[in-house]
Amino acid sequence: MNEFVWPVRVYYEDTDSGGVVYYANYLKFMERARTEWLRSLGFEQDVLLNQQGVLFVVRSLRLDYLRPGRFNDWLQVHSHLLKRGRASLTFSQTVRRGEETLLCQAEVKVACLNAQTFHPCPIPKWILTEINYW
What we know:
Radius of gyration: 16 Å
GO molecular function: fatty acyl-CoA hydrolase activity
Distance between the termini: 10 Å
Number of helices: 3
Domain Thioesterase: 18-104
CATH architecture: Roll
Order of helices and strands: EHHEEEEH
Structural class: alpha+beta
Keywords: Hydrolase
CATH superfamily: Hotdog Thioesterase
Mean pLDDT: 95
Family: Belongs to the 4-hydroxybenzoyl-CoA thioesterase family.
Low-confidence stretches: none
Largest sheet: 5 strands, antiparallel
Strand content: 35-45%
Protein name: Tol-pal system-associated acyl-CoA thioesterase
CATH topology: Thiol Ester Dehydrase, Chain A
Number of strands: 5
Strand order of the largest sheet: 1-3-4-5-2
Oligomer: single chain
CATH class: Alpha Beta
Shape: elongated
Helix content: 25-40%
């Protein structure tokens, strides 16, 4: 089971008036982790957009909040590819504080789109090749 782990520090700006991570910021943390996963495979999203004419967008997600993150916490976003479709990728993502404390978990489906039409398109074969080696 391949898993990509991306560290995130919680800054003051990430918290709400109660001093905990604002719920929407977990989505930002997960987005960063997926972007860094693509980067680790050799793909930059701006290059994919500008030179290849494709982009990846969130199609759907299911998210469960379990425990609060707090200012200055050192978190890890774990990403695991669950399913690879013709034009989509489905990830399991979790945000943890340490190894034992699960803060939230999500299933995120990302669609590959033609950048001009915004219609779904097949994931380019050369991207799939790298994903298959991962």
